[in-house]
Amino acid sequence: MFPIVGIGSSAGGLETLVQFFKNTPNDSGMAFVVIQHLDPSHKDMMVELLQRVTPMPVMQAKDKLKIKPNHIYVIPPNKDMSILHGVLHLLAPVAPRGLRLPIDFFLRSLADDQQERSIGVVLSGMGSDGTLGLRSIKEKAGVVFVQDPDTAKFTGMPGSAISAGLADVVAPADELPGKILSYIHHAPLVSKRGPTQEEKTRNGLEKVVIILRAHTGHDFSLYKKSTLYRRIERRMGLHQIKKITEYILFLRENSAETDLLFKELLIGVTSFFRDPKVWDFLSRKALPALFAEKSPGQTLRAWIPGCATGEEAYSLAITFMELLEKSKKHPRTSLQIFATDLDGDAIEKARQGVFPANISSDLSQERLGGFFDQVDAGYQVSKPIREMVIFAQQNVIMDPPFTKLDIICCRNLLIYMTPELQKKLMPLFHYSLNSSGLLILGSAETVGSFSDHFSTVDNKLKIYRRKEPLSEKFPVDFPSSFASITPTASEAPMKQKEPANLQTLTEQMLIQKYTPSAVLVNDQGDILFISGKTGKYLEPAAGKANLNIFAMAREGLRHALSGAFQKALKEKSDVVVPNIRVGTNGGVQVVNLTIHSILDKKQMQGMLLIVFSDVKDISDKKSDKQSKVIPADQTRVRELQDEVQRLLEELHGNQEEMQSSHEELKSANEELQSTNEELQSTNEELTTSKEEMQSLNEELQTVNAELQSKVDDLSRASNDMKNLLNSTDIATIFLDGKLKVRRFTEQATRIFKLIPGDVGRPLSDLVSVLDYPDLYNDSTEVLRTLVFSEKQAPTEDDRWYKVRIMPYRTTENVIDGIVITLVDISAMKKLETELRDMCGETH
Fold it and tell me: Alpha helices of 185-296 — where are they, by DSSP H?
């Protein structure tokens, strides 16, 4: 097998392609496929232009063309191109002109076809086409080379690939061929020379895992060895390191390389609605079935481990919203998605929800318009969708799982783990799911031997449903037990705890029984210390652990707490809020809230102490004493009743005014919302037009570069022809179809009184020293009959010229004027004599 290099370029790409192939050896053993943004209505000249700079055969791709090494293939205009088993296939483009992404389309197919042998190159160009294709290449353990934006005429495409973290090598276009050759000639890490060498490689691999664990805190010993080998081999090839022992030393000396290797091993590649059949099944059958089991108002909970940059999580949220819009049976049902990944940078990108413009190849225009907002960097997931997803950094091997879930979507994560770890994760997923919850795996993953834990919903799509196992009890290894911990010999046995003294025990009892519950927080509300039992006032928030007091405050407490907290911060004094009705589990309690602003303790300055004190409900006291109230004067009672009635009527009037104002505000809000939707629609149309114009501009840039190169060639050819005619000493005049001067040689000025300004003048207006009065008439006759004419004519200085008049034919064999040549007969005879003499001397 030989390497196949996919090269994507756009505006300004011709110049960089010339630089690239000028520095590519013609016996590199690689095949090159060039993908450009081309004008579909313009004849492509890329093949002709590239053939001038390289001895390798350059050809335009054809359907079902078998790729050969040391060849260059160029995509034809108005086509999408794919590759299967080393054979190129041409397809009619589906997307409208201006929205096509041919580079992404080909690079994705290249990644699927060549796997870890795939090589992607991105050169100068506008937009972000190519970025998603490079993601697929990285996922398959291929390698990515990107032109240095500082040397690119247009930095859009190289910049997009680099900002996405996909570039393995960044260099000028003329240096990229050498770096690619160095990479493919790198020896494989796993040698076949014998068991001794393999043992050394295994030992080296274990040392790399130790270095990673020490640097990142994450253990990769439970990952598949083949995956580790391939990723380490890539990094060694990029740095031209031949031995793993040398790479281990390189890792220890360069922490940045350790971070890059860690990123490589995470394989954080995904896309929106990957495997559309899975999402179609979820939308049609799986989610509606879960809806049917939930009461209106209940929340569906989903967990997506290994979410990377969040495309999978957002795809699930969009599918849920689409289903909710179609179904009116459960309008209050909501979805909460927990999306976790080991890569903190990927989680941060996922939270922002900003993706490049070329995600349009994975999403329909309806989804882009309904669930995304246009931003400068591309598209951002709309706020309602972002609020449905909680992103958190989590190690599924080491950290506790989420529980009471309805869906676990763990696709293409288990394939990178050893079978032993997979067998530990399956019971964990079973434990985390609710009864009849769904487990969704990747196309190459199964539940294995845990068929008694999960029933198959769709075997082809790898969707399973939780079921109770045959045995009532089965072992579940929680993440803390996944990694075996071997105690060292130096560890001493734990000392028996000394009993606490009576004073300490008494103080603890007094604190627990008589001291009010309190929490110590910082100026942001993050809880630093808890004293006493605070469960009646605070409760953990759903999702990732959040120890902020505003997130944990129970119903009824949050509003009063927020206002008092801000007042205590601003005034630097104690704030008391009495008689707050706080919801408990099935009831209501009355609480006094006191916030102390700490100023005197140096180590605690800026912190606040929040104290909760229970109060007996006032209404209960009133009801107890109601029977003991002394009857008041009837007149006073009547006055009070009238006053109450007046206040009630005034309150009723105020309520009606508020209702009216509310309706007016609601109406105004609806009008504003309608206007906003119209503006958003207009913005989407303008964005689409902008994208189309940008794509057309790229095509025009490519055509302009080709035409400019052609003009330069024609200019050189014209100069060559002019020099040739001047060197023959033959007077020549070119006339157009109306017998007007089009062009002439220097020798013609000796016979005709020609100057540069005479171009465009009729032949009959020219003055000459030639005694040939019928020249104009003969020229007219030749132009009419297309019959060649030749005569001899003298000049005033008694020189004779052979005058030839012949039709002028274009490259399309169209008669477009005549050509008059005048040959000096005496000069020709003299030249003939000299040649005869030279031949005689030779003889």
Answer: 195-216, 225-238, 244-253, 255-266, 276-281, 287-293
* Residue 134 contacts residue 120 (beta carbons within 8 Å): yes
Summarize pLDDT for 782-837 with one digit per residue, the tens: 888 888 888 888 887 778 888 888 988 877 778 888 999 888 887 777 767 767 77
Structure tokens that stand for 706 in this block: 């080709």
CA 548 – CA 803 distance, rounded (Å)? 103
Where do we find the tokens 């003009």?
Answer: 711
- Greatest alpha-carbon pair distance for the chain in Å reads 159
Mode of pairing for the β-strands spanning 378-381 and 372-375: antiparallel
Helices 195-216 and 244-253, axial angle in degrees (round to 10): 10
How far, in Å, CA of 468 to CA of 455, rounded?
10
Answer whether 281's CB lies under 8 Å from 458's CB.
yes
**How many alpha carbons lie under 13 Å from residue 139 in its C-beta half-sphere?**
21
Are 302 and 432 spatial neighbours (Cβ–Cβ below 8 Å)? no
Q: What is d(CA 150, CA 449) in angstroms, rounded to the nearest whole number?
A: 55
64 three-state secondary structure = coil
On the 0-12 / 13-18 / 19+ scale of CB atoms within 10 A, 464 is buried
Give the distance from CA 647 to its chain's centroid: 63
- Reduce the DSSP state of residue 94 to 3 states and report it: coil
What one-character DSSP code corresponds to residue 834? Answer: H
Provide the 3-class DSSP secondary structure of residue 469.
coil
Q: For residue 675, give the 3-state DSSP assignment.
A: helix
Q: Which pLDDT tens digit goes with each residue over 705-759?
A: 777 777 877 888 777 777 777 777 788 899 998 889 988 888 888 888 888 888 8
Both tokens assigned to 698: 């790229």
- What is the rounded distance in angstroms from the CA atom of residue 257 to the CA atom of residue 216? 12
Residue 526 per-residue DSSP state = B
- Burial of 506 from C-beta contacts in 10 A (0-12 / 13-18 / 19+): exposed
Helix, strand, or coil (residue 464): strand
| Distance between CA atoms of residues 4 and 33, nearest Å | 7
Q: How many residues does the chain have?
A: 843
The answer to whether 440 touches 406, Cβ cutoff 8 Å, is no
- Residue 747's contacts (CB-CB under 8 Å, 6 or more residues apart) are 726, 729, 730, 731, 732, 822
Please enumerate in sequence order all residues whose Cβ is within 8 A of that of 42, keeping only pairs 6 or more positions apart, or say none: 77, 699, 703
Q: What angle do CA 59, 62, 64 make, to 5 degrees?
A: 130
Cross-sheet strand order for the sheet of 527-531: 527-531, 517-521, 608-615, 587-597, 575-584
d(CA 533, CA 802): 121
Three-class secondary structure assignment of 497-541? CCCCCHHHHHHHHHHHHHCCEEEEECCCCEEEEEECCCCCCECCC
Confidence of residue 331 (pLDDT cuts 50, 70, 90): low
Structure tokens at 532: 């006493």
840-to-826, 830, 831 alpha-carbon distances in Å: 21, 15, 14
Name the strand (E) or helix (H) holding 74: strand 72-74
DSSP letter assigned to residue 217: S
Beta-bridge partner residues of 511: none
Question: Cα dist. 705→38, 160, 459, 699, 779 in Å?
Answer: 12, 23, 53, 10, 41
Residue-level pLDDT at 709: 76
Q: What is the mean pLDDT of the chain?
A: 80
Give tens-digit pLDDT for 19-48: 899 899 988 888 999 998 877 766 777 888
Rounded Cα–Cα distance for residues 489 and 492 (Å): 8
Other beta carbons within 10 angstroms of residue 789's beta carbon come to: 15
Q: How high is the pLDDT of residue 622?
A: 47
Amino acid occupying residue 354:
V
CA angle 543, 545, 546 (to 5 degrees): 105
**DSSP of 654-674, one letter per residue?**
HHHHHHHHHHHHHHHHHHHHH
Q: Determine the Cα–Cα distance for residues 471 and 720; give it in Å rounded to an integer.
A: 92
Cα gap 811→473, rounded to integer Å: 89
